[in-house]
Amino acid sequence: MENYDDTILSLVKDRIGLRSNVRDNYLTFIIKGIIKELEDEKGLVIDLANPYHLMFIVDFSTWRYLNRDNMDGIPRHLQFRLHNLIIKCGVAK
Question: Please, which domain of life does this record's source organism belong to (predicted)?
């Protein structure tokens, strides 16, 4: 994740409303897990310098953190954005 670790974590914490560092380790693993999932399972090449990619990671990480016990599935707006990423970026070769 290069130099974007702190940026993504900070944005996720802002969205959730966290000010302390108590959950940083847990949130960092959620973020890294999502990036790995998108790369390995979806075949995407994630470019964190691209604000669209970065904000998708932030929004998806926020949703996953807030809905960790919810089995309803991913919300439609995240599905739509994920499908757009797959179409636009294609898959890694």
Answer: Bacteria
